[in-house]
Write the structure tokens for this entry.
Amino acid sequence: MKLFNEVNWYGRAMGRYASFSGRAIRSEYWYFALISFLLGAGAALLDRRLQTESTFYLLVTLVHAIPSLSVLVRRLHDTDRTGWWVLAAFTLIGAIPLLAFVCQRGTPAANRFGAALDGKGRPVPVAALPELTTAPSPARDPIGEVERLAELRAKGAISDAEFERMKATVFDAAGSTGNALQA
């Protein structure tokens, strides 16, 4: 059911309502924005119908204030930008690049804010990155391979356990091709 997917994105953003770390893909951000807007419009109509002084609209706005800010910051993180860009929204000129940033595709690999995310908002498994799981060729330097893996671990693209497993694979491949490391 298609509608259920959109509600899931909204629920995911609300579930991480105060988490300003990590990344949020475009679907999470835009479905959250859409459903929040629809809830606000519904609350405004209810206020008008019941002739209240924006009581329901104010309640919906207050409930969504922090989650809106956190999902926006995580969306900026997905494009490898700091959350401080949110302050640009307070100026008309600054709001234009901010809108462009949230429309952009996220960085395809891990960045300083976390691992790459797939289309469902889950971290991309290392197995999906073929250059990380293939054994090194005899011409490759095993030390250089391990240094590259260490950089990926430092960026959060691979876990410590994956790093150790891949490092062992590099050293095993180097030993079997005659390129064993000298002590």
The two ends are 60 Å apart (CA to CA). The helical segments are 2-15, 26-50, 55-78, 92-103, 130-133, 142-155, 160-176.
